[in-house]
Amino acid sequence: TSDPSVVDLDVNVKEGTTGSFTAGAGYSTANGALFNTKISENNVFGTGNKVNLNLDFGSQISNQVLSFDNPRVNDSFVSAGADLLRTTRQYQDFNRELEGGSTTVGYPAELIFGSWAEDMSLTLKYELLRVNIRDVDSEAAQLVKDSRGFSTSSAVTPSLSRSTINNPTNPTSGSRQNLSAEIAGLGGDQDFWLFEARNAWYYPLLTGEFGELTLADRTSFGYGQSMNNNPFPLFRRFFPGGINSVRGYRNRTLGPTDINGQEYGGSKQLVNNVELIFPLVNSAG
């Protein structure tokens, strides 16, 4: 260049690794012994599309999920994805098996509502599931016994999400909200609606050599109702208690029970967690 205020730069660029394979094992009171492996590719054939295969095998849980995600369909702002899944979960008084798939489309809310919605996105999901409630214990609650066997759920779920958190896996500031409404009855045996709202808020309190001390508040609300004379379906019922909802209580022990103390889950739930988050070994991440 003849302009003395600028220079020409030749930059050599090499694409980073886009595929990964991970494996791990562990144990928890909620899921028992568990082995996990995951294969992912974030740039399939150079298209920018993502494919993930996640496999969980354990003493109480088994998951096989294959997912595909296109973040920019034909270079537009529309995103699309699809999932195929098969999950089996063993509970104390019954086993639940889900097989099926879903497809999802999304769009940035900012392009509809303006700059005030720059952190928001709209999605619409359709999901088709075959539900199997099996191995029901003889002492299980009557609702659990009545749910034994196969059924089909065909549902559409519009949702609105917002996120300003600084780190998706280990947030220390910002907030995240999600509103969704699942409506089942587009064919299949299930006929219900389920509204869910979630909010998570993170505030940094103190930063030092030990790492960052963060105050977090998480709230989840759910309300469901059957649209016929049948009870709200078992596979969508809430069973609070345990490390993922209310710590200090055993898993699935805070929901409603029958006269014999057998849990059968509820159609509504409100859980709030206030937490103080700190690193055990900051140098280890």
Commentary on this structure:
The chain is mainly β and 285 residues long. It contains two helices and twelve strands; from the N terminus they run ββββββαβαβββββ. It has a twelve-stranded antiparallel β-sheet with strand order 1-2-3-4-5-6-7-8-9-10-11-12. The radius of gyration is 23 Å and the shape is globular.
SSE arrangement:
Elements: E1 19-28, E2 32-41, E3 50-58, E4 61-70, E5 79-90, E6 95-108, H1 110-113, E7 120-134, H2 142-146, E8 149-163, E9 174-188, E10 192-208, E11 211-226, E12 268-277
Antiparallel strand pairs: 1-2, 2-3, 3-4, 4-5, 5-6, 6-7, 7-8, 8-9, 9-10, 10-11, 11-12
Characteristic key phrases:
single chain; mainly beta; 12 strands; 3% helix
Largest sheet: 12 strands, antiparallel
The beta-strand count equals 12
Distance between the termini: 45 Å
Percentage of residues in DSSP E strands? over 45%
Number of helices: 2
Gyration radius, in Å: 23 Å
Anisotropy-based shape: globular
What's the helical proportion of residues? under 10%
SSE class: mainly beta
Order of helices and strands: EEEEEEHEHEEEEE
Strand order, largest beta sheet:
1-2-3-4-5-6-7-8-9-10-11-12
User: pLDDT below 50 for ≥5 consecutive residues: which ranges?
Assistant: none
The average pLDDT is 93
